[in-house]
Write a structure and sequence with these properties.
alpha/beta; TIM Barrel; 2 domains; 12 strands
Length: 287
């Protein structure tokens, strides 16, 4: 079985404990406009340009001003990606699960300070069957596993026993608002977080704070109310301020970046959220 991923590399602390080998799996079922990894959103992948992209390699004239008009790519076998000088590449690579496991084993000496392998995205559960197989084989190899996901998948609880460290997003407490902005409701997210909170002794919930979407004082109280009702001492919460780290990649993916400077959140806002969570006996952390 094969897995598509658009990035891999080592990271420390932000993707689970210790030094970790992190795989970003291709595809996401949400359309969050602030996403820092637009190349990882379409399950079929995208063509990405670079500063050195040369449109002369395209027989259909699809490349202009550093962007690709995908309508002109119809019927093309993407020959441009096989020409290094074109500066165009496919966003992902595809690799056998067994090959990934072998590579993870070869990197085991790097897993110091309680590290291991983290599978994130995109949204890793979109490749559910291959993801589950990979987690099973990593566990059999005694490699610490972490999964970072948006908690939307119906079968996510099947992965709880295979995941040593679980990280989920919760972007909004209101289902309609979540659906309007992110493209899907939050029913499964709340359901899976509730199940994880009851079945696990550890769960990190991350809330990306976006001004105008979920970063008001009222929002802080509503989030706190939601998580207080779920209720467990095993949950930890982290607030992530909106950033534009992935903005430049949108053009390279021939996508439009719709976020504005108004989305930025002040450090004081994070402190207000942390204070309100503390008042509700909810423990916040920084990674």
């Amino acid at each position: 079985m094969k897995l598509k991923y658009f990035q891999k590399g080592f990271n420390f602390s932000q993707d689970g404990p210790g030094n970790r080998l992190v795989y970003h799996l291709q595809g996401c079922n949400l359309i969050c406009p602030w996403c820092a990894n637009p190349e990882g959103m379409p399950i079929e992948g995208v063509l990405m340009t670079s500063d050195k992209t040369d449109g002369s390699f395209c027989p259909n004239g699809a490349v202009e001003s550093g962007m690709i008009d995908r309508k002109k790519c119809e019927g093309c076998n993407e020959i441009c990606t096989s020409i290094p000088a074109s500066g165009i590449k496919k966003s992902f690579v595809e690799e056998d699960v067994d090959s990934i496991v072998s590579y993870c084993k070869s990197c085991s000496m790097m897993f110091f300070d309680g590290g291991g392998v983290t599978l994130t995205g995109g949204e890793p559960t979109l490749q559910f069957t291959a993801l589950k197989e990979l987690l099973q084989k990593l566990k059999s190899a005694s490699i610490h596993t972490a999964l970072e996901c948006n908690a939307t998948h119906d079968r996510l609880p099947e992965l709880f026993p295979l995941t040593d460290f679980l990280i989920t997003d919760c972007k909004h407490y209101n289902c309609e608002t979540h659906k309007k902005v992110c493209g899907a409701g939050n029913e499964n997210i709340i359901k899976n977080i509730s199940l994880a909170a009851k079945q696990r002794n550890q769960l990190l919930i991350r809330i990306p704070l976006i001004n105008g979407f979920n970063a008001s004082e009222e929002d802080a109280h509503e989030f706190a109310k939601l998580f207080r009702e779920i209720g467990t001492d095993s949950c930890r919460y982290e607030f992530l301020r909106y950033h534009e780290f992935g903005k430049d990649k949108y053009k390279r993916c021939s996508m439009q970046y719709t976020m504005t400077q108004d989305a930025k959140v002040l450090p004081e806002t994070v402190k207000d959220f942390e204070r309100i969570f503390k008042e509700n006996s909810l423990i916040t952390i920084h990674t």
